[in-house]
Amino acid sequence: MQDLFLSSQFCKKVFGAYNNRTKQNCRLKNRIMKLVKKRIWIIIAIALIVLAVLLWLAWTYLNGRNGPVWQFILDPEAHQDWVTPAGYQCQDAPFSMPTDGFIGYLYGDVFQIGKRHQGIDIFAGTESGVTPVYAPYDGYLTREESWKSTIIIRVPQDPLQPDRQIWIYMTHLADRYGNSLIDELFPPGAKEIPVKQGQILGYQGDYSGNPDRPVGVHLHLSIVKDDGAGNYLNELVFSNTLDPSPYFGMYLNAKTALKGPPRCIRDTGVD
Question: What pTM does this model have?
Answer without folding.
Answer: 0.78
